[in-house]
Records
---
Amino acid sequence: MMIGLLVVASASVPISIRLTNRPFYFMFRHSVFLILALFISAVILQISLHYWFKYSSILLAISFLFLVFVLVMGKSVNGASRWISLGVFNFQPAEVAKLSLFVFMAGYLVRKQQEVQETFFGGFMKPMIVFASLAILLLGQPDFGTIIVMLVTLFGMLFIAGAKISQFIALMVSGVIAIIALIVAKPYRMQRITSFLDPWQDPFGSGYQLTQSLMAFGRGAWFGQGLGNSVQKLEYLPEAHTDFVLAVLAEELGFVGVVLVLMLIFVLVMKAIFIGEQAFKNNQFFSGYLAFGIGIWFAFQTLVNVGAVVGIIPTKGLTLPLISYGGSSLIVMSIAISILLRIDYECRFLLQNGYSADKKINEKE
């Protein structure tokens, strides 16, 4: 978070001056989001996993309502209607939808684990229908990147739950066909694919953002130009403080800085997987599925963001976890980390007293 604050402060100076005539406008906003995220996380940390399980369906229903609301009365930015204006900042329901889907999925896998392992429609297809409903609403925004992250995380959670490989193969083939159809259906998606394959073919048009990002990486070399010395952030590189903040980090801190940040995220992901493994060993299955889901989510979103910035995959408009500017993303991911801490807490300490969130869940059922 602190690295993110520093890089956002540096990357956002030119756009802050142009829009507000204040060089650190976005840095101050990001600081407020960071403090708010930590405060909300401290509150979330007090909530037992039992309540997340109990109200998972309600949380998902609220996410559906938010997504419908954003389509009806959402704020449009750069041609995408993904935000609800709350006056002081714009709220992005898609971020809440990600977390709520994973919480719901973890509860579903506890309730229907045997069905998931044995039947196709009864256990495997029901969560896919829920996902498809969310995907339709997200396509209306449009937010293709969030759909991909949700789908991959969902597949990961189902795989951990013991779903059959044949089911995955069938759905993966269907998914690839659907993704190709969605790309072909919209000219701007097709343009992203072609510009990603050869951005230098049209460096001042469809390939402009990627070529500017690659220039930033090239200038950064091993140790970077120094904090604050990026040239590409001087409004050559679009979205320098949001989706493409890693390019500015690469230019200023170099290959070493990028590797350091990615290693920190990698350690966070590995810790999430370790916590999930410990939860399974303690028969806290809801906690285990949720921890693995959060770990897969963070890992894949990082992969997509980094891949888009360096030209490995087409641009998807996803933030770099805990680094990029964006209040909704920062707050929701902080909540996810608080849930991980709560899972770890219940595994380490409460089990010593014979307490288990899953035990409570089983008693209620």
---
Amino acid sequence: MEPGDLWFLPERMAITASSAWWFLPFVLPVCLYVCFTDLREMRITNQAVILLAAIFVVVGLIALPLPEYGWRLVQMVAVLVAGFALNAGRAIGAGDAKFAAAAAPFIAGGDARYLLAIFAANLLAAFFTHRLAKYTPLRRIAPGWKSWSMGWKFPMGLSLGGTLAIYLILGAFRGA
């Protein structure tokens, strides 16, 4: 292992570098928008979710072989069904469930384990950073953000959007 290696990622990820590069310029702005709106309003907008899904539908035809493209669409439906079930049980918010479904087809099935590691690390970092900023002068930069005053509720879009962005960036450089 080299000094710059990430211990939880293989030498090559299952996503191809080519598909990650195709998706990245379109998906990254949506991820940043989702992070911002969830911090500001404590909601992930339907427009962002629809745009993310539309990006996959259009760019996925170019970036992926047709059989894989079809399976990735099945992934989206499966995550949407699971997300609705979790939302019905009040485990996650509706926007979080919809965003996860729209993000699902961008993830190569063989990278699920690594995606979970990225998500766990990102969730911890985002949670502690948000809580730290909430009680420091940094809060004055955006005093009107709803996420500051929501008690224990946390803007998961910060972690979900960040995770997808990090995954695609890593895939662009470490993809098959």
---
Amino acid sequence: MFDFGLRIRQLRESRNMSQEELGRRVGRSKPVISNYENNIKFPPLEVLISISNVFNVSLDYLVGIEKKDALYINNLNETQSNIMKLLYEEFSDCNLKGKELSNRQQKILSMLLVEFLNS
């Protein structure tokens, strides 16, 4: 069974953050954060969102919903993010076995190489 309190504690400790500091950043007191970490209380949605923003993780991750095929692009700049979206859209339903890449696919891959090699 998923341990929400442990997830919060691990995220907080991995960033060398005290319960007091996390509480300050999400508008809650140190004892309330302690209650979350000890699974005594569960935070309301707005606090969950604040916690996910503090740690830069998805709500799914925060509450234990593991998506093995998820790709997170939030650390990319806008150009890189757009290229990754194009790449996904173009290749997600594509079976390339024995086929050549289309001009569009070649262009997307070229954009990808240029952008990521220059950054």
---
Amino acid sequence: MRFIKIISVIVVLLVGAYALSMYYFVEDSKNFKIEKEIDFPVDKVFHQFNNLQNFTRWNNFFTNSQSIDIDYYTPYEGMGSAISYVDPKNDRDGEMFIRYENPNQTLRYQLFEDKNENPTLVDVKFKAVSAEKTKITWFVHTPKLSVLRRVENFWTEDRFAENIDKSMTNLKNVLGNKVEKDNQMAAIKYDSLMVENEEGKLLLGINVSTSNKKDALYKNIVMNYNKVYNYISMDLGKKEDEFGFPMLITDADNYKDKEVSYFMGIPLSKKIGITDNNFSFRSVSPTQNYIIYYKGSYAGRVKAIQQLIQKAKKDEMRFGDIYQVFIERPMEDQDVNMKLSLSVYK
């Protein structure tokens, strides 16, 4: 009995010492600032922050869990927009609001976590460093914590900073694909032969062999494009701005063959786990390409491909695969809008 009393006294003293140290030496809330720069225009960056449907696609707070369920509330974008979320696997829930917006300059978020009546306030400022670079600054004010919970303030800033680092990586991937698509559409000059240095890509797709009779090849391409697109968008849950234009890779001169083998893939930013053995990843190394944009019937592409091959032969260049990039998704009984790229080397 005496032993229990001694233990109880020690526990009380320890708790008291802990409480006093928290009360006198640890603030009840935290205020800190985090700054980052990203190589994209301020208007494109801001739209990823003030539209909460965009925001939850790349912010690590929401993307790091497969079990999180998010509800969006009108107006969906700008001041007054809101979301609520529940993550049963990680035992967390909350609500988030945009309370203030100054377009392309400032946003204020209010985050209520786990039934806490006091919100975390986050002011985000955006500054155009140049036409293609934006500085983002987060000013964070955490809610007041009770004396016994103030120890959490020791790691709050580190946890927030880690989340921002991961989120910025995701945001770069999202904007990279989106800006690449926008720039590519704006730069199109049809039927003009050009030289282009192509960056490496990682494609997720399917290997195919099929007949080259009449329209059989194009129908097969449409069917397999739909397979790949549905797998990436539905099974893997990827959004349009998270992947690039579909690409078909095949031998440059196999348009003359009775049977054609090709790889139909869609670019992703990184490898992810896949469970369907029908699909595989394929890496495309950086190459120098002769390119031409073409719009018309799929069969009519042959003339454009021949132009690329003749150019390579005239320049005494060896050539490899032909990359057929569909600027608009391939659809049956419709013209194609595509970029044809012939990889060349000495």
